[in-house]
Protein 1
Amino acid sequence: MKQVLLVFFGGGIGSVSRYLLSKWVNNFETSLPYGTMLSNVLGSLLIGLILGYLAKTPHLSQSQSLLLATGFCGGFTTFSTFAYENHIFFKNGDYLHFFAYTISSLLLGFTAVFFGLYLSKLL
């Protein structure tokens, strides 16, 4: 039950953080949903750092990993919002933004995970 509560609290904090970031950054009238992309990239970087650090040192407990990686990063990043925003671009015939947002989100997300893993080796 403790593990479930850790994921629950971490996910709640991550979800609220993502919502606030999106409200602050997103402007659907003029551009891509940068807030969602930013939360996905930052969450990817953070999970790379957390899991990379966990792999090399015993200083991060399983409970901390559940709270931060599974909970916070799981709540902070969001594939469902990403998919919905792309659906809107596609439905509206905005294929340029559809492809730009999809490709840049995937490339930046993967790069952020790899960079986080690399940074964790330096810590």
Note: The CA atoms of residues 58 and 84 lie 39 Å apart.
Protein 2
Amino acid sequence: MTTRVAVYGTLKKGLSNHHYMNRARFLGEDRLHNLVLYDLGPYPGARLEPSAGVVVEIYEVDSQTFTQLDVLEGVDERNSTQGLYHRRQLATNQGPAWVYLYNHTTAGCPVIREGGWPIRVKPVV
């Protein structure tokens, strides 16, 4: 059995936790207009809010990988508001996909309403 997940942070290609996606099948990218990212420093947190389009990578994962992702993201299945993240299915161009949403305060954190994480700084010319 496989499940779709949409990732926006350290699980993306080339980033520190992408090795968790070794057995996953990359399906494509999308821009979600109902997702905002908060730069928490070493990783981002997402919230359901209107945006100009946050870039996500969509993968098909097996049940073992999905379980590992829940552990990595600190999901508490007994009480979704108590874990570091909880997950929710959102519509993507590849069909419904689980997205991990941040449970804690984002006060004072930089907001990303368009594009992706990490924030790419353009060189000054």
Note: The beta strands are 2-7, 25-32, 35-39, 44-48, 53-62, 85-90, 97-102, 111-112, 114-115.
Protein 3
Amino acid sequence: MDANIIITAATAISVGVILAAAGLGSAIGWGLICSKALEGISRQPEMRPQLMFNMFIFAGLMESFPFIIMAFALWFLFANPFLG
């Protein structure tokens, strides 16, 4: 069997696992961020504007994570550095 075929197949499987892990990690992060913000608002309602602002800042950072991972995964998929 040709080594390039094995490398291409392993890269495709790895890209799928990477994208799935990035999506799952982002979803878990969103859930934790929102739950802690709601918990803080329920404890101190007067802090709602500050907590919401922080929640949206951190949610934006959490949202950028899968896109960065997707860029690396597509680089591995289309410009595979492991092929000779």
Note: The mean pLDDT is 92.
Protein 4
Amino acid sequence: MTSPEPLPGTDTTQPLRPRVTCRRCHRPLHDPESRMLRLGPECRDPSERVDRYEVDQEPLPGVG
């Protein structure tokens, strides 16, 4: 008995991204910011928005 052929379009070598859903409405999230915050744009309040700041840091010892 031979193994069945994969469905068309499913024979990819790239790993699939884990499914991330919104904490409030449980819909799948696609953009990187929503995935990081685990909140979709429709479910985010402007007051809950997380500001990001770039900070200069010394390199870690032993990391080149």
Note: The chain has a mean pLDDT of 79.
